[in-house]
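Bench notes, afternoon.
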Amino acid sequence: MFNPLNFISKFIKSGNQKELDRIGKIVNEINNLEAKYNLLNNEDFPKKTIELKNKIKSGEKLNKILPDAFALVREASKRTRNERHYDVQLIGGIVLHENKIAEMRTGEGKTLTIALSAYLNALEEKGVHVVTVNDYLAKRDSEWMGKIFNYLGLTVGCISSEIKTNEDRKSMYECDITYGTNNEFGFDYLRDNLKLQKVHMVQRNHNFCIVDEVDSILIDESRTPLVISGAVEDKTVL
């Protein structure tokens, strides 16, 4: 039976379909690189990371090197975790890199998807934060994805309630990619703003952040404000 809507849709695409078509072209570029990176030796992966970092320092934009970065992460994941990114995960990674929300169902591999955009933005060497809802997920994801990132030559840290000293926290924030909860990141930010000298602050500049379970963290959790109470350090000189 003739359906006029299907006929019209062949010539007039919705905004969502246009966006999927655009991202689909990028996914095809990534897939075309799979055979190339499959030939790399294990020791070549950190070298490729250095090459991409040098391209960025030379003025190359992240969007330009995205296909190579994503293809590298996919191959590293296959070798370290025996998990290959599906096209839907590549699409999710591109969406996250573009500062948009990617809705994925349970079991579609959100943790693996996050690794793609986290790696790409970590190449700027300014730090990447991955925010999760609790300490368990932060530790688990940093360990699982840490195998991939370490294989690629990047460092991974995890901020949890168990880390007490400023020195230990600062070392975690100095990693290329840092996992943690919204509470830990938030309280560290507040405490840093109470420091009188920058050298005593634990966080560095805020560059790129990926929020897992964004509806829970930015809607549900945000209803409870983070408050620091206590005596203010007095450095007044008379």
